[in-house]
Amino acid sequence: MHRLVMFSPENKIDRAIAANSGWYTVLDRDTVFPYGIKEAPIDKATLQQSLAKKLVVFLGEFDNKNETRET
């Protein structure tokens, strides 16, 4: 979802929620795409449009193989 918002800012999404991604593309100009935006197929104007979108990213604190889900 976060990459849809980032690379297709002309979409009609009002609000977007990204959760449980296997990995994220971060706004790091020193990290090569797809993990960062260095050499990414995105220009400055598109990136500015993307940053104007409402995007929420949910990250799990203990999202790992040892998680027991006990309450």
Structure description:
With 71 residues, the protein is of the alpha+beta class. The chain has one domain (2-58). 20% of the residues lie in helices and 14% in strands. The chain contains 2 helices and 2 strands, in the order αβαβ. The protein has a two-stranded parallel sheet. The model has no long low-confidence stretch (mean pLDDT 85).
Task: Set out the fold topology.
Layout: H1 2-7, E1 15-19, H2 44-51, E2 54-58
Parallel strand pairs: 1-2
The SS-based structural class is alpha+beta
Unreliable residue stretches: none
User: How much strand content do the residues show?
Assistant: 5-15%
Compute the separation of the termini in Å: 30 Å
Q: Residue-averaged pLDDT, rounded?
A: 85
Q: Give the C-alpha Rg.
A: 14 Å
In total, the number of domains comes to 1
Spatial order of the strands forming the largest sheet: 1-2
In short:
The chain is of the alpha+beta class. The chain has two helices and two strands, in the order H-E-H-E. The longest helix is centred in the C-terminal third of the chain and has 8 residues, at 44-51.
